Amino acid sequence: MTGAARPPQEATGTRELEQPFTVEPGQRKIRSFVLRQGRFSPAQQRAFDALWPRFGLDYTGGIRDCDACFGRSAQRVVEIGFGNGDALRFAAKQDPARDYIGIEVHAPGVGRLLNALNDDGSDHVRVYRHDAVEVLTHEIADGSLDEIRIYFPDPWHKKRHNKRRLVQPEFAALLVRKLRVDGRLHLATDWRDYAEQMWDVLDATPGLRNRSGARGHVARPEWRPQTHFETRGVKLGHGVWDLLYDKTPVERPAD
Q: Which of these is catalytic: 95, 154, 203, 242?
């Protein structure tokens, strides 16, 4: 299959998984994630070994021919930081007409999703285990995405760590470039302070229009399943904010 790649190295204690980001000598980038691998089960390792050629995409640093990867031309949705893959799995089962690309750096969650996709026969899903910023910047063509989803990104709640938050002005501009005109950006967070930052950044980003008006949010859409932790939080009175933005034509300054 075009675009598929070899499975990553074993994570059994004798060999380690490859780093899910590009290492540039002499540079130390601020990233929105810290690798906390957790337990990598034998089943998850088997998933990488057997299923990566079917569902996996290796990062190459060049624009990817997605039509060749999926064997068809269809609208495409990217989910960034899919965790254990529950929302991505749900969406793929409900929406087989569109292609889905999931991006996640944590190997246990990737392995879990690979097994789920195999069980479901969801051949319209592909998975990266790599830094989403690098994937979007170098592998996804501008104006090629129907939708981008970012559910419950790490809030980095300590003020000194806020610079690690994924949603920053430069990243927002990158999202706009990758969406087609009228494409959709959907974010969800259960951290009010992060919702405020999302509004500060996205409401001010050229090419994005908040569907609910300035600093607006919507009830959880039917295409996003409620997570176990979200259910527990709602019972405790915690808030959840879903933000929907549409890409509008970016006005170019007059010469």
A: 154
